[in-house]
């Protein structure tokens, strides 16, 4: 998949657990795992906005395009 999700990098930078992140964003830990593992087919802009707000980052910090 050419889009790589870098949520784990930002969580480590913020020293935040998946559980805390999920609660603050309004997702289940299982859905965060789906995002982190690159198994999500889509992400709502409202979810992306909430993730960026919680992690104090830009969308490009969470998503990266990588040529196959």
UniProtKB/TrEMBL annotation:
Residues 13-62 form the HTH cro/C1-type domain. InterPro entries: Cro/C1-type_HTH, Lambda_DNA-bd_dom_sf. Gene3D superfamilies: lambda repressor-like DNA-binding domains. Pfam families: HTH_26. It comes from the Bacteria. This is Helix-turn-helix transcriptional regulator. It comes from Pseudarthrobacter quantipunctorum.
């Amino acid at each position: 998949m050419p889009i790589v999700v870098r949520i784990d990098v930002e969580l480590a930078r913020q020293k935040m657990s998946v559980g805390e992140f999920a609660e603050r964003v309004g997702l289940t830990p299982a859905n965060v795992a789906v995002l982190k593992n690159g198994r999500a087919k889509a992400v709502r802009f409202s979810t992306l906005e909430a993730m960026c707000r919680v992690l104090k980052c830009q969308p490009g910090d969470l998503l990266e395009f990588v040529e196959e």
